[in-house]
């Protein structure tokens, strides 16, 4: 691997980065070395990343390619090859692994393991926050990777941010993009007292231009952890001077101010990692990882509020309470008055006057007076009929025998006909209900 990377640097220096591909997007579907480029999956300041397939083993890989425009600059070529060398010298489960490196037709590339999953940056854009028990575990894995890089190779990443931290399908963090990393024994490309990486995750000593060590990466990890549990960065600004001033002299808002449910122990770890004086931070990243795992955070159980309100949970309900029950048929004694009550109520009722009517089937009026001059039909019912039995419950119309004396009983006859819903002219009218026994005998 070292020989291949060394030959890449010599080849790029002699060819000046000339490339047969005028547009990098056209590489999809092309072969590069022993790999097939299938789809572009990422793009950054130091190159483009394609998802590819290795012909020999048939496995998915990630192939990083230096664009043609950057290949003309020898500093970018040197940085590209240095990144491949740094990754090749690290072996940790939380650091992306490199498989191969090469050059074909002036195109520089190196091949890494393909991580199928999102970045922490994409998770934060979608969800806003990450549960604190997951955030603590992710931060512990990142700290393990940083401790391995610095303790074994003295590598300082210098660009720790959510976009360079990927999460695979097993929930394991992979630290990516060592393009700005610094390691002893390798060529120093960055100009002295210049800021590299994202400004939001830069430590105060980076802004001041002081020599850096692993505590700068610990500070950046503290910013990432702060953002995971609150959804916001600790320092912001509209312009670059405002951001740098906030980092170097601004007041830090405690993360519990943005997330009141944050565990106090986790907040203390974040504040220690974000100390402006680096002598107050963790000396080694593994110390931060040990304290994060010692918290032993678990999945939070949802707690019901003590006071009632629109957000209060509903009490447990009986599913049978929502079953549709048939309506209960009311009892007649509960709904209908007695006959004596009904008769007294109807006797006291004042009806409007009606025109006189003749006998059924007769065209001549009976010559009776106005309705108010005749007694109420309830009082007439108290008198025994002149002839014929009184109609009983359910009696048909043919069983009703009219009285013989029209001058006395015509009014009763008329109202009995009205109870049956019939007028003297044979018109159909809905009549009132008349009690009979314990129920009603309805007319019509």
UniProtKB/TrEMBL annotation:
EC numbers, comma separated: 2.7.11.1
Domain of life: Bacteria
Biased composition range(s): Low complexity: 383-395
CDD domains: STKc_PknB_like
Claim: Kinase is one of the keywords in the record: yes
InterPro entries associated with the record: Kinase-like_dom_sf, Prot_kinase_dom, Protein_kinase_ATP_BS, Ser/Thr_kinase_AS
Domain Protein kinase: 35-293
MF-aspect GO terms: ATP binding; protein serine/threonine kinase activity
Protein keywords: ATP-binding, Kinase, Nucleotide-binding, Transferase
Pfam families in alphabetical order: Pkinase (PF00069)
Region (Disordered), start-end ranges: 299-444
Binding-site positions, ATP: 64
Gene3D superfamilies: Phosphorylase Kinase, domain 1, Transferase(Phosphotransferase) domain 1
Leading EC class: transferase
Protein name per its UniProtKB record: non-specific serine/threonine protein kinase
Native source species: Thermogemmatispora aurantia
């Amino acid at each position: 691997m070292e020989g291949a990377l060394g030959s890449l640097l010599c080849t790029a220096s002699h060819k000046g980065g000339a490339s047969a591909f005028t547009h990098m997007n056209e590489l999809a579907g092309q072969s590069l070395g022993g790999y097939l480029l299938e789809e572009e999956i990422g793009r950054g300041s130091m190159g483009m990343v394609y998802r590819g397939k290795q012909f020999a083993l048939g496995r998915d890989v990630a192939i990083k390619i230096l664009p043609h425009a950057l290949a003309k600059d020898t500093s970018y070529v040197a940085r590209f090859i240095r990144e491949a060398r740094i990754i090749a010298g690290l072996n940790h489960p939380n650091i992306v692994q490199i498989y191969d490196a090469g050059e074909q037709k002036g195109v520089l590339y190196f091949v890494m393991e393909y991580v199928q999953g999102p970045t922490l940056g994409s998770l934060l854009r979608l969800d806003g926050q990450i549960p604190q028990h997951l955030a603590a575990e992710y931060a512990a894995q990142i700290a393990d990777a940083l401790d391995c890089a610095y303790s074994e190779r003295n590598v300082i990443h210098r660009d720790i941010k959510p976009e360079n931290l990927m999460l695979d399908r097993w929930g394991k963090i992979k630290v990516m993009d060592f393009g700005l990393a610094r390691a002893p024994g390798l060529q120093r490309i960055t100009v002295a007292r210049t800021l590299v990486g994202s400004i939001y995750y830069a430590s105060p000593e980076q802004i001041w231009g002081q020599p850096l060590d692993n505590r700068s990466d610990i500070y950046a990890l503290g910013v990432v952890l702060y953002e995971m549990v609150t959804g916001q960065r600790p320092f912001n600004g509209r312009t670059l001077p405002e951001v740098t001033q906030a980092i170097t002299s601004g007041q830090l808002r405690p993360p519990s101010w943005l997330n009141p449910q944050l565990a106090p122990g986790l907040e203390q770890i974040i504040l220690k990692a974000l100390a402006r004086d680096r002598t107050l931070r963790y000396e080694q990243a593994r110390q931060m990882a040990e304290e994060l795992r010692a918290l032993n955070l678990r999945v939070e159980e949802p707690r019901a509020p003590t006071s009632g309100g629109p957000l209060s949970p509903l009490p447990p309900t009986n599913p049978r309470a929502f079953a549709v029950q048939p309506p209960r048929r009311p009892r007649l004694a509960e709904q209908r008055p007695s006959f004596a009550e009904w008769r007294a109520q109807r006797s006291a009722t004042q009806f409007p006057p009606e025109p006189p009517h003749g006998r059924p089937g007769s065209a001549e009026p009976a010559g009776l007076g106005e309705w108010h001059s005749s007694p109420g039909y309830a009082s007439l019912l108290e008198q025994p009929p002149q002839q014929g039995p009184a109609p009983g419950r359910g009696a048909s119309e043919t069983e009703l025998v009219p009285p013989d004396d029209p001058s006395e009983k015509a009014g009763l006859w008329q109202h009995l006909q009205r109870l049956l819903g019939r007028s003297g002219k044979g018109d159909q009218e809905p009549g009132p209900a008349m009690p009979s026994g314990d129920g009603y005998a309805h007319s019509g």
